[in-house]
Specification:
280 residues; mainly alpha; Four Helix Bundle (Hemerythrin (Met), subunit A); 2 domains; 14 helices; transferase; membrane; transmembrane helix; Prenyltransferase_related
Length: 280
């Protein structure tokens, strides 16, 4: 039973969001981190707001998941809906409280991001591509949040955010291929539903390709150690290319589900690359 409560918050996603806050602070400051309390509060803000969004997503998706993912905790009945709502409210409050401890600007960013996630889960998901954009924003905003914690939002940070944002759109479009059957029945206008799985896979490839084209910019700007940066980022770029091409060749639920999970791990490797290669 405990594993179902862990599963519903998608801890890998939550840890990556929290870790992204730390990465944002680190690269914006030139390898100089704020105090330990700020880092901890920033990580926990990202973790708990992400967790609340994941729970609320499953609450809103319970009928769709009875078709697409019947083994998930809510559609399978392993977690009761009232317990899921309790988790959502609790994690929301905890996340926003921690954000208030990191400063007014970061609190505002957290509030905006929280309501974007809420609006997406409540209303935006059925819009399809607009919903993909909302999710991709949420994936990239922790980098901006981390930089804002130390008042150093700059062009370099925006490049990193844009790479995450574009690859996040690609991943969400790919996810739409995996969920096309349930989304079609639920009236969710994803690219896969409107244009078909093959064209959706091609569009995902385009967004991955643009993100890849941006990846040399930190080297060109002299913000990173070229060799240390290039090795992990080259691996990430190759993963993005390969999963998108494979999905184009075979845009099935099984392949797209596998590839969207692989791309998430690649994004985590990309964050590590940003972290270890940043110059003082």
């Amino acid at each position: 039973m405990i594993k179902d409560y862990i599963k519903i918050i998608r801890p890998l996603n939550d840890v990556m969001i929290g870790f992204s806050v730390i990465v944002g602070s680190f690269i914006a400051s030139g390898r100089q981190l704020p105090n330990l309390y700020s880092l901890l509060f920033g990580f926990l803000t990202g973790f708990f707001i992400s967790a609340s969004s994941m729970v609320f997503n499953d609450i809103m998706d319970i009928e769709i998941d009875k078709i697409n993912n019947p083994n998930r905790p809510l559609p399978s009945g392993k977690i009761k809906i009232r317990n899921a709502y309790t988790m959502f409210y609790l994690f929301s409050i905890i996340g926003l409280l921690f954000s208030a401890l990191t400063g007014i600007i970061t609190f505002i960013i957290a509030i905006i991001s929280y309501f974007i996630a809420y609006f997406y889960n409540k209303f935006g998901k059925k819009s399809g591509f607009l919903g993909n954009i909302m999710v991709a924003y949420s994936m990239g905003v922790p980098i901006l949040y981390g930089a804002a914690m130390i008042s150093k939002l700059n062009f370099n940070i925006m490049v990193y955010w844009l790479m995450i944002f574009l690859s996040g759109i690609a991943r969400e479009v790919t996810k739409g291929i995996a969920d096309v059957e349930g989304d079609r029945k639920a009236g969710i206008k994803t690219i896969a539903v409107i244009m078909g799985e093959k064209k959706a896979a091609i569009i995902a490839f385009i967004f991955y390709a643009i993100a890849i084209l941006l990846s040399p910019i930190p080297v060109i700007l002299g913000k990173v150690y070229p060799l240390i940066y290039s090795i992990p980022i080259a691996i990430v770029d190759m993963v993005f290319l390969s999963v998108s091409i494979i999905t184009i060749i075979k845009p099935t639920k099984q392949i797209s589900t596998k590839n969207k999970n692989i791309s998430l791990l690649a994004m985590f490797l990309g964050l590590l690359g940003f972290l270890i290669s940043t110059k003082p």
